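Researcher: We're teaching a course module on how sequence relates to structure. For the next exercise, students receive a sequence and then see the predicted structure as C-alpha cells, so they can try to spot secondary structure elements on their own. Here is the exercise chain.
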Amino acid sequence: MIIVYFTFIAILLAIIYYELRVATSKLPREVFKSYDFLQKKFVKRDIFVISPKEEKKNIVILYLHGGSYVGELEKYHWHFFKDLIYDTGATIIVPDYPLAPEHSYLEVFEIMEPLYKEIIQRLDENTQFILMGDSAGAGLALALYQRNGKLNHRLPDKTILISPWLDVRMDNPEIDKIKDPVLKKPLLKLSGQKYAGKNGRKSYLVNPVLGPTDKLKNIFIFSGTLDMLNPDAKKFALKNKGKIQFIEYENAIHNFVLMKHKKRVLHAKDGYNRVVEIIRKNEEEEKIGERK
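Model: And here is the predicted structure for the students to work with:
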C-alpha cells in the first residue's frame, strides 16, 4: 500500500508539474532596456539574439536553457543574460527548442544540429565561440558538442556546463544520498523518459555520459554538493581529467550560478564571477601581451 501511495503522489505531482509549466517563454521588458534584442524564426522555432547596445566583443555564446526538458526560459535566465552581456560584451544566442512531453530529443536535434552548423559557418576565426547551458540545457549542450565532434565540425573554444543533467536514467546510487532542496527525482525521471521517447535511453544524445570523449577539451562544469545531479557530473568529469575542469562548491544548490540576484543563495556570486572569468580569459591574456 505504501509503494502504491507514493507512486500515486509522484504521478499526481508530475501531472501538476506539466499542467502548470509555462507554455511560452516570458520576455521581461525591463531587462531588454539593457541590451539589443532580436527575435527570429529558425525551423519554425523562436531564436533570441541578445547583445550589448554599445561595444560588442568578438564573443558569441550559444546558450541552452534548463527546465528538465519540459520547462521554458525563466525570468532569472534573462537577468543572467543581462549580467553576462554587461560583464563580457558577448552576443548570446538562445534557441527556444522543442520541449517534452510533446517532443522528444529527436525533434530537438532536428533543430539544434542545423542551428549549430549555421552559427559556426557565420563565425570568423577571430570570434570566440562558447557553448553554454544549465541543467537539462547543459546536458543538451554536451550532447551537441559530442555530436558535432563526430561530424568533425568546428568545436566550441570553451564549453561551460552549469549544474548539468548528464544521465536522465538517474541510476547512480549516490543520488539518493543527497538532500536536494530544489529537484525532485520522480519528476526528473518522468521528464527524462518523455524526452528520451521510445528508444532514446541508450543514446548519448539523451545521456551524454554514454557519448564519445576523445574530442572533449576546454570544458568547465559547475556543480554544487546539494544538487542531485552532482554525482553523475562528478563521475563523468573524473573519468575525463584533463579534458574537463570540475568546479565544485560545497553546499551549493542546483543552478546556484544563475541565482546571483537571489538573496542567500550560497556561492552564487562567486560561481557567476568564475564563469565571467572563464569567458574573458583570452581577452585578459591579450591585454597582458599588449602591455609587455
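Model: If you want an answer key for the exercise: The helical segments are 2-20, 29-32, 75-88, 105-122, 136-150, 185-196, 230-239, 268-291. The longest strand covers residues 35-42.
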